[in-house]
Inverse folding.
């Protein structure tokens, strides 16, 4: 059965990425300067016992294999480690902040997709070049503004940060969608359909958009990656208590375990979305009929 | 002689290429099969698309008149023209597989072709199957469930012809319908066209660069060269008494059967016409709906 | 070239020229603090006013352009060469080699770009001298930004390997090495050039993002990213844009440069058909 094979391939890819990503991260932590010295030595508040315990943990972490297995074992128990910078268990931080990020990321993704695809369809179907040029110019400007700058502008205007994410996803989707649809519109079967006297709307949806759906779905998958990427500057600047802001604070505090965990987690999330997109493409009618 | 079904007088310029068609005058009688011969770049596809009013955006508006059954097609509104496309005048394109939407089943595409001009959608299936019989596609019902990529090139071409004649149009324009086919399938399709034209009393404009295939099929020929109609007349007369030098070159370029009696092939005359040609056909499908 | 792309190229050259000769064009040094003119408005002495430390914005803009306009293309060159190596080898040799290389590329690709950058940046010391921070940013962008380009290069290399003219060359008895140097590489050049042109604006914007988050080029060396931090007081900026033109000018500059690149890219794509 084809779908089992596809599912297995996707799952294997995700698991492999998670493992390799974790290994890479662990290597980075181990090799980073300042790994040996402990901040516990600088803090006067800790008692001797806790200082010894922390130092013992650092030495344990020094062996990379031990660190990694220790880490993996922890994850399987739901324990993602402890954040030195924020002084709280990581799993707690994640539980608090993930819904916030998912909220704005999903919203930004969907809005960006709707706006992007909608405008792309409009600019292919409308005969006016003015609309096409206007949308193109708008998306070109949005593509040139760094996410952080856009977030600053949104901070000032008072709109919710998720609009910023939407506006950062939109231009990519619009440009890609427009190119795909324009290519589809130039194909021979569109001319043939018009020659048969079909109405413009029928030609647009059944003959221009429909064959382009696989590529559009793939773009939707990529929009997840874009949205997550945009969430860091947007959350950091608009003060949204989500994962993105956590990453930023972790970076400033050089809290590597936290950074590593979040990066791998987000990678898994985006890969899942992309895999779902791939699966949807594989399942469109016509593919399933092939032996 | 009654008024011709199609009487056109056309000049078409593209914005980046003037003189694609220069005062071309063509007539097609009811039920007549006319062949339009010309090499690539001569403007034959432009002529076909002009009749259908499907020229790409960058072409300047065609000048002249296209009288079809008493109406000038160039003066019609968009919705009126759409009512004619597919119902009164139909078109078959060059590449069969590409002309079918890869994402939809054949049945869906037949149904939408029917619904484009008929309000009563229930009869589409029987009409589709009846039309499949006409184009020698016997396993019609099974075919309706297939996707275009599951068809052979020959089958796809017949499906396209079936879609074109679904509403029994009075004029069928075929733009190089056999260039993508092998010799045997090509011959079958040509025979099919001849049968259809007779049975449905359907006029045909058969566009090709291949002189031999049109000779078998067409009642009259028109030779197009670089946007100008250099010669036209009954097929037999064109072959026996070609008046224009280009026509003569075309006829002598047709390879003789090795077993046939030797006839002088004036191939040197060809060089006058092949110098500086091979311009790519400027017509592409429209970029907007 | 069309008129619009000529103008774009001209504008880019002008900005690059201005930044290269910042030493001569800038009225003051980039870290000269004029304590008597803090947050001053534009004047003859300070064309774009001064920031809250009394530094001349115009000079900082010029010097900052130098950082952004040298850093980004250099990093883009580095990453494009890396991508060419990875993608070229993968596409050319296929088989095991291709599989391994592509798995690595996919791994790097699947980690979200900004997350990866920030994570790696945090590994390296944050409080370092400006030149070191510039080097770090350069290496960061170069070493992590090759993955998308590598995929494109691999596809192109594959195309060349299985192309009709490669087959023709093999039929004539040409060796694989000669095939690589004489046929593959020249055909990869346009792909690599296109990827380079695509990467430069991406890196400029990424550097700006990093700078705004405080993870880019260290003070007092100005870069567009760190200059954009002034946007945090957007309220005051927008209330009186004439007195505080600095950050908006930086934004405009950024948008201009990136748009020029995009225009050039598009016209190049159109030319090549």
């Amino acid at each position: 059965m084809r779908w089992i094979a596809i599912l297995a391939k996707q799952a294997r890819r995700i698991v492999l990425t998670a493992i390799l990503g974790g290994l890479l991260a662990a290597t980075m932590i181990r090799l980073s300067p300042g790994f040996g010295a402990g901040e516990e030595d600088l803090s006067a508040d800790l008692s001797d016992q806790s200082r010894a315990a922390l130092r013992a943990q650092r030495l344990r972490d020094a062996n990379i294999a031990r660190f990694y297995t220790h880490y993996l074992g922890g994850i399987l128990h739901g324990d993602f480690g402890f954040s030195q910078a924020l002084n709280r268990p990581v799993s707690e931080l994640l539980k608090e902040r993930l819904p916030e990020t998912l909220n704005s990321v999903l919203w930004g993704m969907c809005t960006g997709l709707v706006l992007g695809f909608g405008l792309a369809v409009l600019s292919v179907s409308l005969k006016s070049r003015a609309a096409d040029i206007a949308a193109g110019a708008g998306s070109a400007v949005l593509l040139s503004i760094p996410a952080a700058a856009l977030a600053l502008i949104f901070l000032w205007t008072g709109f919710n940060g998720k609009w910023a994410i939407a506006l950062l996803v939109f231009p990519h989707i619009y440009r890609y969608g427009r190119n795909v649809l324009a290519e589809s519109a130039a194909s021979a079967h569109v001319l043939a359909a018009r020659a048969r006297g079909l109405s413009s709307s029928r030609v647009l949806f059944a003959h221009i958009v429909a064959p382009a759906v696989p590529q559009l779905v793939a773009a939707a998958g990529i929009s997840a990656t874009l949205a997550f990427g945009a969430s860091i500057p947007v959350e950091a600047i608009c003060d949204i208590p989500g994962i993105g802001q956590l990453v930023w604070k972790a970076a400033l505090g050089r809290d590597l375990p936290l950074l590593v965990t979040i990066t791998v987690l987000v990678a898994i999330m985006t890969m899942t979305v992309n895999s779902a997109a791939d699966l949807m493409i594989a399942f469109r009618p016509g593919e399933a009929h092939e032996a | 002689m009654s008024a011709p079904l199609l009487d056109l007088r056309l000049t078409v310029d593209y914005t980046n290429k003037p003189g694609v068609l220069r005062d071309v005058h063509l007539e097609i009688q009811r039920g007549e099969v006319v062949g339009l011969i010309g090499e690539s770049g001569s403007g034959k596809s432009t002529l076909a698309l002009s009749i259908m009013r499907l020229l790409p955006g960058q072409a300047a508006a065609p000048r002249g008149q296209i009288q079809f059954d008493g109406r000038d097609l160039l003066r019609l509104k968009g919705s009126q023209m759409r009512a004619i496309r597919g119902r009164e005048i139909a078109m078959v394109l060059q590449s069969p597989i590409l002309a079918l939407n890869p994402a939809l089943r054949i049945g869906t595409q037949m149904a939408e072709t029917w619904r484009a001009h008929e309000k009563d959608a229930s009869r589409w299936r029987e009409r589709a199957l009846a039309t499949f019989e006409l184009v020698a596609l016997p396993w019609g019902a099974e075919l309706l469930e297939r996707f275009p990529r599951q068809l052979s090139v020959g089958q796809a071409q017949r499906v396209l012809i079936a879609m074109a004649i679904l509403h029994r149009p009075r004029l069928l324009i075929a733009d190089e319908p056999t260039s993508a086919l092998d010799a045997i399938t090509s011959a079958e399709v040509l025979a099919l066209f001849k049968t259809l034209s007779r049975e449905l009393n359907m006029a045909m404009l058969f566009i090709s660069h291949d002189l031999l295939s049109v000779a078998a099929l067409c009642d009259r020929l028109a030779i197009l060269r670089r946007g100008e109609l250099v010669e036209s007349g009954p097929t037999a007369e064109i072959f026996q008494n070609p008046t224009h030098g280009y026509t003569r070159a075309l006829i002598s370029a047709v390879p003789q059967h090795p077993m046939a009696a030797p006839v002088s092939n004036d191939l040197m005359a060809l060089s006058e016409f092949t110098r500086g040609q091979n311009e790519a056909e400027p017509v592409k499908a429209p970029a907007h709906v | 070239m069309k008129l619009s792309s000529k103008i774009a190229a001209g504008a880019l050259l002008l900005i690059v020229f201005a930044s290269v000769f910042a030493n001569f064009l800038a009225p003051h040094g980039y870290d000269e603090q004029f304590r008597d003119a803090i947050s001053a408005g534009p004047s003859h002495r300070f064309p774009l006013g001064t920031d809250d430390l009394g530094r001349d914005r115009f000079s900082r803009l010029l010097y900052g352009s130098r950082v952004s306009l040298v850093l980004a293309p250099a990093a883009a060159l580095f990453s494009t060469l890396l991508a060419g190596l990875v993608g070229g080898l993968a596409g050319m040799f296929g088989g095991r080699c291709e599989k391994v290389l592509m798995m690595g590329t996919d791994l790097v690709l699947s980690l979200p770009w900004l997350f990866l950058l920030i994570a790696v940046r945090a590994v390296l010391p944050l409080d370092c001298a400006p030149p070191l921070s510039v080097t770090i940013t350069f290496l960061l962008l170069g070493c992590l930004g090759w993955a998308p380009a590598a995929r494109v290069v691999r596809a192109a290399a594959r195309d060349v390997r299985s192309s009709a003219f490669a087959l023709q060359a093999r039929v004539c008895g040409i060796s694989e090495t000669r095939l690589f140097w004489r046929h593959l590489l020249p055909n990869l050049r346009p792909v690599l050039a296109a990827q380079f042109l695509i990467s430069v604006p991406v890196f400029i914007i990424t550097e700006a993002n990093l700078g705004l988050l405080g993870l880019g080029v260290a003070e007092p060396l100005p870069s567009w990213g760190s200059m954009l931090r002034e946007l945090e007081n957007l309220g005051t900026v927008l209330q009186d844009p004439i007195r505080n033109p600095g950050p908006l000018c930086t934004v405009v500059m950024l948008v201009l440069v990136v748009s020029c690149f995009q225009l050039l890219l598009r016209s190049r794509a159109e030319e090549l058909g």
